[in-house]
Amino acid sequence: MASIGHVIVGLAGARLLTTPKSSLRERLGLAAGLSALSLFPDADVIAFALRIPYEAEWGHRGASHSLLLALLLGIACGLMLARGRGHGQRLRVLIVAALVAISHGLLDALTDGGLGVALLWPWSHERIFFPLRPLPVAPIGLRLLGPRGLSVIAHELLYFLPLLLWTLWPAAKSPRR
Ligand SMILES: [Zn+2]
Q: pLDDT digit string (tens) for 102-118?
């Protein structure tokens, strides 16, 4: 994926947690925090610069894309974003953050190229793809800005457009009492 989909998932998570009473600062904090969380596993592309092979345990889409690390990262990020909230809201933030983090590996397993995702690390090092793989895989690095990369971005935008529209749609105002 070209990251656009991951960002949209993060923004949708923020929208789920936003209420009409949320301040602009709170909205921006949630949107930035959850988008970064959703993208974070792809920081593992640094493995290429470190000459760690793609197929290695800590290579791209390896352990960093596992469900276990996503869950731990989601909970850690959720705890930060939930500071200062009531008990019920805290739990909601934790659950949404965990789901956003987990979504990354699951979406990558729906892509049509590269290596699969080590979703079950550390119990299994198998690189997994789902049987259905509708999402085009994005070229890595600057090649993303080439014709193929731009075509992937366009496809991804199309796939995630409904979620993006829902995310950007103004929230209904709560009825006056
Ligand atoms: Zn990824």
A: 999 999 999 998 899 99
Centroid of ligand 1 to alpha carbon of 108 (angstroms) = 6
Ligand 1 centre to CA of 158 (Å) is: 19
Query: What angle, rounded to 10 degrees, do the helices at 4-17 and 147-168 form?
Result: 10
Other C-beta atoms lying within 10 Å of the C-beta of residue 32: 14
pTM for this model (two decimals): 0.89
71-to-42, 133, 152 alpha-carbon distances in Å: 15, 23, 28
Residue 130's contacts (CB-CB under 8 Å, 6 or more residues apart) are 109, 110
Helix pair 24-39, 87-108: axis angle to 10 deg: 30
Cβ(12)–Cβ(107) below 8 Å: no
Contact predicate 44/62, CB 8 Å: yes
Give the span between the Cα atoms of 177 and 78, in whole angstroms: 32
Q: What's the CA-to-centroid distance between 52 and ligand 1, angstroms?
A: 16
Phi, psi (rounded to 5 degrees) for 116: -70, -170
